[in-house]
Amino acid sequence: MPKITFNNKDHLFFQSVKRSVEAYFQNNRLKKTGNWKLYTKALVLIPVAVAVYCWLLFGNYSWPVGVLLSGLFGFSLVCIAFNVMHDACHGSYSGKKWVNDFMGLSMNVLGSNAFIWKIKHNIIHHTYTNIDGVDDDIANGPLLRQCITQKWMPIHRYQFIYMFILYSVSTLAWMWGTDFYKYFSKKIHTTVIKKIDARQHVIFWISKVLYLFFYVIVPVYFLGWQAWLTGFLILHITMGLVLSIVFQLAHVVEKTSFDSVAENSKVIASEWAVHEVKTTADFAPRNKVISWLVGGLNFQIEHHLFPQISHVHYPALSKIVRKQCELFGLPYNYYPTMSEAIYSHVRLMKQLGRNY
């Protein structure tokens, strides 16, 4: 991995915004981790997913209802990822480590691996956001050009159209392809995974076997392979589209900036927190329904500055962060609605398909 250094000598912006955030929690006597609002989400979403799964296996329904149920099952799993897994893997679900570790395993229940994801997301993406050559989130293969420094190919002219097809199969590729590639190569893009201990090896393989059992073998036994395959594909199309779109809106839109690094070391001129603000965007901040469903991931600026604070606090923190950005003359990238953010993502991908 190329060595990247941020100019954190003074880090005046982060010191200031951190003081304001600390004062907010102290004055309101609040914990930074989850509260009843977060735990209620888990108590709602997890039983819903289990109920839909059982209904698909044992219920009597027509094929259109089966299609809808498969989509609902995929959507409920995505909401668990947004609302439960994400906070837990960042250590913000609970003040107790064992609770975070346990709830973080919901990532494994969804088909992936919490250990690998923490390195990919918590360490690499949150430190080197939108830096081409390091950030694995913008290294999605040759078919997608997500920043100007990535190699252009003629097919990219149409990426703003076919990218949604790629998004729809992304979780299939992730759970049955890239997870295994990262595991066996011990590498996430250009970053080496230094060590995988025995416990993580066991968890990886047990999780994959259990996923195969509950998501493939059991439904094939009860439903037959044709009905299972149809439902399984709808499940992943739903998961892939929702996951991809929500995360793309945070970084791959017109208002965010990008950087790049090759094999040599590089010094980023700004402090880390300033880099995070410039490379990240919020969307639909006033839409409480979207905020509830996506687990506060529409407040990505706040999340990137304070990843170990639970998302239930982000609406309040957004006012603080926005004011601090204004004081320091920094852009506060946001889109008032989700549809505006989606249009911006499509326009950027269309533009990147033309520039070569």
UniProtKB/TrEMBL annotation:
Source organism per UniProt: Niastella vici
Residue ranges crossing the lipid bilayer per the database entry: 38-58, 64-86, 98-117, 160-181, 202-222, 228-250
GO cellular component: membrane
Protein name: Fatty acid desaturase
GO molecular function: oxidoreductase activity, acting on paired donors, with oxidation of a pair of donors resulting in the reduction of molecular oxygen to two molecules of water
Fatty acid desaturase domain mapped to chain residues: 62-335
InterPro entries: FA_desaturase_dom, Fatty_acid_desaturase
One record GO biological process: lipid biosynthetic process
Keywords: Membrane, Transmembrane, Transmembrane helix
